[in-house]
Amino acid sequence: MQMIELLVKLKIPDVTALTAAAALRRRMGYGEVLKELTRADYYALHLQTDSQQSALALAEELAESTNLFVNPNKHTYELRGPGEKVKPTSEDGVWPVEVLVTDAEGTEATEIQQALKERLGYAEQVAGVEQGTLWIMKVAAADLATARQIAEEMAVTKARDEGLLVNPHFQAWEIL
């Protein structure tokens, strides 16, 4: 079994990410630290294929041929296999940090799985689908560990003025 990550972003400006970035910068004091904030719909596709190459081809087919993940009029997408994520490197002291937010009860995208297996005929090829939101931050910090710590502070809500992107009462998160 192969796992492919499918990241789906809007072609137009994402007002949710822009609003969150404005709140983090202006209301929560991260104006000098948060350089950029974007988000993507995240899907982990667990595919029954013989090779990584065939898994990527199947994931591309699912993204382009079904209407379950991507609307080509308003979305772009990116596919990533295991190990394809580049280790974050600093650009003049700015580090990219990804925060994956999922439902704490389980990240299974049951409606999507059901449609793929029953309605669209991918029952033999799709073992599972997980769903979440991927927040991509560019954080000014001395090193990657500090950038990851700051990203977690910005993301995880602890009080009215601490954290914004994750509600720990019903969501799980992972700093990638």
Describe this structure in words.
By secondary structure, the protein is an alpha+beta fold. The protein has a single domain (2-175), classed as Phosphoribosylformylglycinamidine synthase subunit PurS (Mth169, Chain: A, 2-Layer Sandwich), CATH 3.30.1280. It has four helices and six strands, in the order E-H-E-H-E-E-H-E-H-E. The chain has helices spanning 15-27, 52-65, 110-119, 144-155, and strands at residues 2-10, 34-47, 75-80, 94-103, 126-140, 171-175. The chain has a six-stranded antiparallel beta sheet with strand order 3-1-2-5-4-6. The radius of gyration is 17 Å and the shape is elongated.
Taking strands numbered 1, 2, ... along the chain, how are they ordered across the largest sheet? 3-1-2-5-4-6
Counting structural domains, the number is 1
Number of strands: 6
Pick out the low-confidence regions. none
With helices defined by DSSP (H or I, 4 residues minimum), what is the helix count? 4
Order of helices and strands: EHEHEEHEHE
Major β-sheet profile: 6 strands, antiparallel
